[in-house]
Every structure is written in C-alpha cells, then in structure tokens.
Amino acid sequence: MTDRARVWASRKGLTVLFCCVFSSLAIGQASEGLDIRSAATPIRLDGVLDEAAWENAGVATDFYQNFPFDTSYAELDTEVRVTFDETALYIGAVIYQSQEDYIVTSLRRDFELGPSDEFAVNIDPFQDKINGFHFAVTPLNVRREGLIDNGNSISTDWDNKWYAEVSNHPEYWVVEMAIPFKTLRYKRSEGANQWRINFSRISVKQNERSTWNPVPRQFGINNLAFTLPMRWVTPPPSPGLNVSLIPYAIAGVERDEEFRLPAERNFNAGGDAKIAITPSLNLDLTFNPDFSQVEVDRQLTNLSRFELFFPERRQFFLENEDLFGKFGFPSSRPFFSRRIGLAQGTLRRTTTGGDEIEVQRSFNVPILAGARLSGKLDNNWRVGLLNMQTGAVSDADLAPANYSVGVLQRKVFDRSFVGAIFTNKVNYRPDGAGGYEVDPDAFNRVAGLEYNLFSKDNKWEAEAFYHRSFTSDNHVDAQAAALFVGHYLRNWRIFFPTHYIGRNHEAEMGFVPRRGFLSTSPGITHLIFPKKKWWAERVIAFGLSARTEFIFNQPDYQLTDRELSAGAFVEFPGQSELSLDYTENYTFLFFPFDPTNTGGVELPEGTDYTYPTLNLSYSSDVRKDFYYGVEGSYGRYFNGDFSRLRFQLNYRWQPLGILALDATYTDIQLPSPYNDAGIWLVGPRAELSFSRSVFFSVFLQYNTQADNVNINTRLQWRFKPVSDIFLVYTDNYFSDQFLANPRGKNRAIVLKATYWLNL
Q1: Whose CA is closest to 72, among 24, 32, 13?
Q2: Strand 78-84 to strand 34-38: parallel, antiparallel, or no bridges (unpaired)?
Q3: Which range has highest mean pLDDT (20-34, 148-162, 283-297)?
Q4: What is the pLDDT of residue 22?
Q5: Cβ atoms within 10 Å, residue 511
Q6: DSSP annotation string for 148-212
Q7: Number of Cβ atoms within 10 Å of the Cβ of 350
Q8: pLDDT in tens, 529-576
Q9: Is the CB of residue 622 less than 8 Å from the CB of residue 572?
Q10: ω into residue 655 within 30 of 0, thus cis?
Q11: Which UniProt keywords apply (predicted)?
C-alpha cells in the first residue's frame, strides 16, 4: 500500500504537466470504461489496500474537474479500484488531500451534499442512465447512501446496509467500501454482463469538484448520463435468498394541555419485510407501521392562496419513490404518499373535567397493512404496484379507505421512457351493524400517460403527460395535461413549461393544490465564465436570468396571475453567491383572500392588483467554520406594502455537528380595514454527533402566523447497521407571549426500537 502511494505521488508532477498540454484532447477521449474481476483473495475491510486482490482489480485514475472549471484534470489526484466476491462489491480509493485541509460538517450519517469533503460512487446496474444507487463517504468515515432518479436527483432518505472503513495519512486518505449485492438491484445473465459507474469527489477547501468520467459543469457531479461501462469479466453472483425483516416496538405518552385532555399512553408493535422476488424486483410489506422517528416538517410562512407541498420522509414509501410519486408536474401529482395515513379534521375528545369537546387538528390515521412491489423486470421495463388499507378513526367519523396504485414504465431511445399510472381510492361507510362496507359512490380514480425525454448528452429534457380523473359524478373537464421542454448548455439554460388542469380534475390520492387553469412559464438564464486568470481566481461565474409565469383561469381564460422577473447573480469560490432580482406580480382574485393568511378581513372577489418587489441576497463562503446567508425584500403586496428580512447563521463545530439559526421576519402593511401583519418564523437547531452511531438533534420552530412554537428533540443510537433506538420528545406552545407566559398545547415522548434482520 505504502509503495503504491509513493509511486502515485511521484506521478503527480508528470500528470499536471500532461494536463496543461493535452487536457482538451484527453477530455475528448474519455476512458472506455472499467473491467471488474473477481477477487482472488479475501478482503478485510480496514481502510488499508494491502490485500493481493486489489493488485488485480480494475483501476480508475486521472479524474477531471467539474468545478470551478471543466477543461482540465483535477488538481487533487484520486485512484480507485473495484473488485467483488460472492457477497459484495468492493471499492477501494486513495484520495489525495492534506489531512489539515479536511472539512467535515458532522459525524451524522446521510450528511448534506456540498459542505463536506467526500468521495462518492454512482452505480447504474441497468444502464438506463436514469435510475441508480449512490454511496458516499467522508475522510472521517461518515456515510451517505441514496437512490438516484431522473438521472441526477438523490433521495438520501433511503436506508440500507453497506460498510466502509477509512484510514487517514498526512497527505491522503484511503477508503474501502463493501456494498452487499443484497443491497443492490440488478439483472444477471450467464453471458456478458455490464453495468455503468462513475466516481466523484468534493474537496471543499480546494474549491474543487471532480469526476472520473468528465461531467460538464452545468450538471451535477452525480449525474448518471455521464457514467461509463463497468464490464464483468465473470458474471456477478446471484444474491440468493434476500429477505429482510424489520420489526419495531414503541412506547409513548401524549398529553393535550390546550383542551385539558387526559394523558394517552401508547404501546405498539409492528414491522416491515423486504423480499427480493428477483435481484431487481422487490416486495415491501408493512403491518401496523409507525413513523414516529420521522423528523418534523420545516414550517414555512404561507402567503399563497393554495396548499403547500411537504416531502415524504417515511422509509416504507422511499425505494423507487420516483416510480410512484413523480408522475406529472410538482403542481399536479396523481399520487402523493402523504395522503395515506395523515389527515386534517375534527376530533371529539373528553376533557379531564368530563366535558365533550371538538378539536381541530392534524392526526395520524392508522395504517393496518400495506404491500408494495417495485423494480425492474428487465433492462427496459419497470413496474410498481401498491396497496394500503387504513383503519377508521371513530372520534373523527373517519371511515376506512383503501389505496391502490399501478405503474408501468418502458425505456425508449437512450435515456427516455414512457409510463402509465392508475390510482384507485375506495372509501368505506358504516354498514349499520357496527362495521364498514364499500361505498360504491365514494371512489376516486386517476389514469394517466406520460413521456419523459432525456437526451444522451443531458442537454435536452422534455416531459409530456395526460391525466384523467374518474368519480361517481363522472365530471367533464376532469383532465390534466402538460408539456415541458428544457435546454441546458454551458452558457444558456432555457425552459418552457405549459400546464393545464381542468375544473373538475380530482386526485384524492395526489397533490393538486389548484384547479381550472392554463399556465405557461418560460424562462432563461445566461452564464458568463471569466477567462482571465485574475478574475477566474475570484469569481466563478456571472449570471443573468429572466423568468415569467402567466396563468389563465377557466371558464373564460381570463389572465388571473402574472409574474415577470429579471435578475443577476455572481458566484464566488466557496459556494458563495450574491444575487439581485426584480419581480412584478399581477393577481386577479377569483375568490376572497386575506393576503396575510391570519384570519383578517379578506380582499373582495373580482379585484386585481399589480405589485413589484426587489430582492437582494448574499450567502457566504462555506469553507469557513462560520458561514451565513442574508436576504432582504421590499416592495408592494396586493394593496399594501411588503418587506422581508431573512438570515441564516451556521457554525460548523467540526466534527461534532452544526449549530444553526434560520430566522425570517415578514412585515405586511395593508390599509384599513385589512390586517397588518408582522410574521416571525424562527428556527434554531443543533445537530450533534457524539460518534458515528449516536446522534442528537434539537429543533425549535417559532411561527407567529400559525400561532405555534414547536420543540422537537431526537436521540438516535444506531446499535447495528440499519437498526436503531430512538427517543423523541415533541412539545407545542402558543407563540403569543411564549417568552413571557408560555401556554402549552400538547406534548409527547416516544421510545422506539427497530431491528434489521437478514434471513
């Protein structure tokens, strides 16, 4: 190991000289891929590449810069080797970086992409360059795993077993990864087998991002469009029986102080099972699931007229989540998994004094059981089937419901696919005998077709879809359709979405916050990269942008919303950026609306308003232990004045974690008799890692618009891979006079244990 490191270091001078002379030619002649051979000897995972198996492993060297430039070799060298045995894929890497330059945000698993040094591998077993697996590690052996969809989106909420060890040296660090074949999804044949792979690096202090196969800097370093072939000299092994059981047990106490309700003590158990029908097709089963360890949603100041979107975090729904949840546009999804098991409504409760009262709140709906089949049938076909049954909530007069989804996708051309989706929600009603029966008039179904295009070089992206909802009323104008075209070049980013949703389009299992409109939203961004050395060392890029949105409401397609925006920004080293934007909005109210969303007097229906806003923001250099962002806005808002100040403060207590504060003050001044509003949204948080297996987080959210203060703390001990004990405490108060005279709403404490058992 030491000899090889010295040899590699001695090549650095020649490599740099070669890059200066031949970089353009070399990048044009990217490597043809990598051959992977079975390990001749066992590999011990210890962060030292001293086994004989590494000497015969496939080698990837000569990384290319992606950022700040993409026309030369990386300044920091990396050497990667890949091999395998009957149980796992092994990746060993020598990563050249001075130990004193390490920047690692914390020891917590699933660390954020960007502010920490990292080495990552992206694997595409089916060579569709759209879906794959992502594994990353820092110099302190902090790990992150995720699923890649749409070519570059990484979901780090996915959790599974894999292993890594790191050794640190003064001028380089070494990582050994072992990714079990049972963790991956792939198709195996007895003849030639080929996957696709790429490796990436982020070196924060050096302000460098690099990849083995070149990735143009207008794209992220983990984009699967730029993976290279990984050819198996001998076929990968079949993972054999691949069944995982994940039972849980939970105990908790909840008390509602607002309505003087007695404490509720809960004891429960349930679990999940993951069964590999084939190496590429997985069946997930759940019985009486519980999601109490999920982090609370980040609260937002809502000044819109419509519902806000919050992402799914529950583990059961995450594998192949894009297959189910990314049909349509973000403003028109036929399926949104948060509709299952969560509800907003009126609960009947009995106080400690014996009074019967009604309580408006969000609450969990019991999920009795569910099944989810998803994955690849072969290199061209993906399938997804989901069915979940919820129970009744008697004190909310909420009957059971059944949720079903079917999805089929077919790959076409190099990186594109067509898909079909069908959702079916069946509602129940009381049968008069103490039970429930299917209500034949209370169903909701959506059927849809979609085409997604991703060009081979990733410069073109397009999407077109048509969805139709069905209810017992059989409404006309119950469809949704859209077309999106985007073109992404080094200096230009151009996009043109057009979207239509009918007045009677109902997707009870989906997310459709607004109906009955036609919108178009073209936009363009121009990037300018300095060429002179003096400028290039101080400024990464300049940018100019223009964005628009026009919304026409049914039935007469009157213009009801318009947004015209122009801006400029400058990007500096260390992910620092300064931006200035000017926006002019026009709104025609087709229903009464309180612009402050605080329950005040509403502006009348049929009135229209034009209001401009100027926005200035700056984010500082993340390479420093203390980094921050500040944003200020000023302008008109409907028939009044608007100003907003937001600041974000972050202190990296390396390597223990992050101390942060995110605070926003929004001031709205409207003429009488309408409400004025001074809205505070303050969110201090601490995320601390006492080791790579013990994590503690505390998060406070002070929201005067929602009249709520939420305190959420979570202690997590990962005692074995993907097996945890959680202690979660949540407390809610009224924000009014919180500091002087706090009034409690409700609080809960939960202890939960989960265990991942492989059969």
Answers
A1: 24
A2: parallel
A3: 148-162
A4: 34
A5: 21
A6: EETTTEEETT-----EEEEEE-SSEEEEEEEEETTTS-----SS-EEEEEEEEEEETTTTEEEES
A7: 14
A8: 988 777 777 899 999 999 999 999 988 899 999 999 999 999 999 999
A9: no
A10: yes
A11: Signal
Distance from first CA to last CA of the chain, Å, rounded? 36
3-state helix, strand, coil in the chain (%, to 5): 5, 55, 40
How confident is the model at residue 740, as a pLDDT?
79
Q: Which CATH architecture has domain 2-232?
A: Sandwich (2.60)
Cβ atoms < 10 Å from Cβ of 681: 21
Distance, in Å, from the CA atom of 459 to the CA atom of 418, rounded to the nearest integer, reads 19
Burial bucket for residue 355 (CB in 10 Å: 0-12, 13-18, 19+): exposed
Strands 34-38 and 228-232 come out as: parallel
What is the C-alpha to C-alpha distance for residues 70 and 522, in angstroms, rounded to an integer?
28
Q: Which bin fits 738, alpha (ψ -120 to 50), beta or left (φ > 0)?
A: alpha
Which residue from 698, 711, 709, 712 is spatially nearest to 738, judged by alpha carbons? 709
The mean predicted confidence, pLDDT, of the chain is 89
67 forms beta bridges with 209
Conformation bin of residue 671: beta by default, left when phi > 0, alpha when psi is -120 to 50: beta
Indicate the domain borders of the chain. Answer: 2-232
Q: What pLDDT score was predicted for residue 295?
A: 63
The answer, yes or no, to whether the previous bond of 68 is cis (omega within 30 of 0) is yes
Structure tokens at 716: 């997590």
Q: Compute the average pLDDT of residues 624-644.
A: 96
The three-point CA angle 235-224-47 to 5° equals 65
CA dihedral 667, 670, 676, 681 (to 10 degrees): -30
Query: DSSP H helical segments within 180-333, as ranges?
Result: 321-325
Other CB atoms within a 10 A radius of the CB of residue 505 amount to 23
CA distances from 130 to 151, 381, 453 (A): 4, 13, 10
What does DSSP say about strands 479-488 and 460-471: parallel, antiparallel, or unpaired? Answer: antiparallel
Give the DSSP H or E segment for 533: helix 533-536
Are residues 338 and 357 in contact, defined by beta-carbon separation less than 8 angstroms? no
pLDDT at position 241 over 90: no
Q: What is the pLDDT of residue 300?
A: 75
SS3 301: coil
